[in-house]
Design a protein that fits this description.
This is ABC transporter substrate-binding protein. This protein is an alpha/beta fold. It is built from 17 helices and eleven strands. It starts with 47 loop residues before the first strand and ends with a helix. The relative contact order is 0.18.
Length: 444
């Protein structure tokens, strides 16, 4: 689940820097007088484009800086508004007829709600062409509604990660697992060594429970496969059918196993009262060894913690059934327009290019941002966890799927799924949990 405030976001394709050769254009390119990647947008002097998002200070600075080359080379002015209540306010604004020109939308389900207001505008062909070129096909489907395409992906996160201590693995002779069976064997070995291998926390205010939804989605993707995962997310199979029920039970083999959890924090029920931010911290003092959480968790380690393959903490890919399987669960945002003025279409197209993706990396020198754009130059990423995540996203063997709860109706994805997951971790049965979520699914 990606939520604001918890996580910390036609023109011809060839006219917009839409080729890998454009990756040399960085955020400093415009200031050095190189506007070659922007000339086809034309002179937009005097034009203003408004952008709204749930990305706030200090993370918004890199976005604003990444827009400057477009401004400097076209003459356009881009205004940015970051709002912690973005996800509520953008719907209010769209329905009231005063939306921004472009919104950075963090969930496919919210995109569909915005399209339903009638305010969202289909993206120009250049955007669709860039997405065909730079992203795997599933990314395009997330903002295609009734056959019309509405917006290119922006940033991305990888959720299929397990955090660990490299020094503990080295000292104890543990190997990074390459299959789910090996992960289970590793967990059992840690128990036999006198450890509680796993730690977790799901407390997150009104969003308490969301980390379990990610766990379940990861297991559903691995046990049932991407086709059944898609059916589950779109309610083509019931939430309480066999495969989802099995997936939640697989999560229970870890999170409801008193021999496995909650290392350094308490018993199984302590997972519900431990904040998600604190869930992995026992790795640092050795009272926990493994913590399944997304790439964005890198921002939650205390200042001075080295996040690297040879550092204090790092992460490995949550493996599939076999070493050859590469299912990856993740999240991201999408640039959706509410105006089809030429300058807005030009800027929306810029945001779909590899030029912008690399400008954004250059504007984020301390790391913490990646894109699934295949034109992103991963060698320019400064953070080891960003590099790991980008490698996973760009791996041709990867089968990517977007966070399921972010695609489900709000009554389920950001309501009953969270609440029932919390009840489950504190003792409710798997059957009652999936039955209750199924009963909450909207009938229309």
């Amino acid at each position: 689940m990606a939520i604001a405030g918890v996580l910390s976001v036609g023109l011809l394709a060839s006219a917009c820097g839409g080729s890998s050769s454009d990756t040399s254009s960085t955020a400093s390119g415009a200031s050095s007088g190189d506007c070659s990647a922007y000339t086809q947008y034309g002179d937009l002097s005097g034009k203003t484009i408004s952008v709204s998002a749930g990305i706030v200070t200090p993370e918004d600075t890199a976005y604003i800086d990444s827009y400057k080359p477009f401004e400097d080379c076209t003459g356009a002015k881009v205004t940015y508004d970051g709002n912690k209540d973005f996800e509520t306010q953008i719907l209010v604004r769209a329905r009231a007829g005063n939306p921004p020109d472009i919104a950075i939308v963090p969930q496919p389900g919210l995109v569909k709600q915005l399209v339903a207001t009638g305010a969202a505008k289909p993206a120009p062909k250049a955007v669709a062409d860039n997405v065909d070129k730079f992203w795997s096909p599933e990314w395009k489907a997330y903002t295609t509604v009734d056959g019309k395409y509405y917006g290119a992906p922006s940033g991305a996160s990888v959720k299929s990660l397990v955090w660990y201590s490299p020094s503990e693995f080295k000292d104890s002779g543990y190997a990074v697992p390459t299959t789910l069976d090996e992960l289970k064997t590793l967990s059992d070995k840690m128990v036999s060594d006198g450890k509680k291998p796993w730690c977790a926390g799901i407390s997150s205010g009104e969003a308490t429970g969301w980390p379990i939804t990610d766990w379940m989605e990861d297991m559903m993707l691995r046990s049932a496969g991407p086709a059944e995962y898609d059916k589950w997310v779109n309610h083509q199979i019931a939430f309480n059918s066999a495969e989802p029920t099995k997936a939640l039970d697989m999560v229970g083999e870890y999170l409801k196993n008193p021999a496995y959890v909650n290392g350094g924090l308490g018993d199984v029920t302590s997972i519900a009262t431990t904040t998600f931010q604190d869930g992995g911290l026992p790795i640092l003092d050795g009272t926990c060894s493994l913590h399944r959480q997304a790439s964005f968790y890198a921002a939650n380690w205390p200042k001075g913690t080295t996040v690297a393959e040879d550092g204090d903490v790092f992460a490995f890919y949550l493996p599939g059934k076999t070493a050859g399987d590469k299912p990856v669960l993740g999240g991201g945002e999408f640039n959706v327009a509410f105006s089809d003025r030429p300058e807005v279409q030009a800027f929306q197209t810029y945001l779909s290019t590899d030029t912008w993706a690399n400008n954004k990396v250059a504007a984020t020198p301390n790391g913490g941002w990646i894109s699934a754009n295949k034109g992103l130059d991963a060698s320019k990423l400064s953070s080891p966890i960003d590099k790991l995540s980008a490698d996973l996203l760009q791996d041709p063997k990867t089968v990517f799927r977007f966070d399921g709860s972010d695609q489900m109706p709000a009554a389920v994805g950001s309501n009953s799924f969270w609440k029932q997951a919390t009840a489950w971790i504190t003792g409710q049965s798997t059957k009652d949990t999936v039955d209750n979520i199924e009963a909450s699914w909207p009938t229309s």
